[in-house]
Amino acid sequence: MTAPRDTPPTAPPPAALHRLVACEYCDALYERTALAPGERATCLRCGGMLYRESTRAYRRLLPLVVTALILFLVSNTYPIVEMDLKGVRTETTLWGAVMALHADQMTLVALLVFGTTILFPLSEMLMMCYLLVPMARHRMPAGFERIVRGIRQTRPWGMIEVFMIGVLVTVVKLSTMAQVIPGVALWSFGALVVVLAAMLSFDPRDLWHYLEPPGADEVPPAGDAR
Ligand SMILES: [Zn+2]
Q1: 12, 72, 124, 128: which could join 16 in a potential S-S bond, CB 3.0 to 4.6 Å?
Q2: Membrane spanning segments where (predicted)?
Q3: In contact, 78 and 86? CB cutoff 8 Å
């Protein structure tokens, strides 16, 4: 029942804590070691991926986020599709579609479309920018850990690719009834899906790794090992 009193609690020093990595599938603890480019570390117990060598992906991340922001701006400014039904032309933007849903008494659907295609993807891109711009200048962004958590919580709600599939299915179906002309936003949405896929392949937790001072990854002297 009682803990032995003569053994003081042995908390690992903070530097050692930084090197620990837990398997998110089975909670096994490992000590992080440096990997060669393209390598990944997997859990010995369950085979789950622990982390991968992401230096090249990290260097690409800020240009990808800026590209995604530009494509997002274009996608929301220009019409997605134009429809020509017996000489009557109509066109809509993403925001126009949200407002049309709201006007048709489908406020909940309008909110879902707004959240999953505008609000959450934009929040994630802005949070990424907020972290990556100071980090590129070797500065620590204020509130780093809260923003990383925010990115991880926002990520599952960004569903631009689901919206894209929906639009494509609708365009194909409508093309039997009216002349459908793909708008600029349809192409930029397509490009945005590809850029976002590349951006989302980077685990935001790996950003911790690039905040650490150089040399933090090196193997400690033998006396430090448990
Ligand atoms: Zn595991």
Answers
A1: 12
A2: 61-81, 108-133, 154-172, 184-202
A3: no
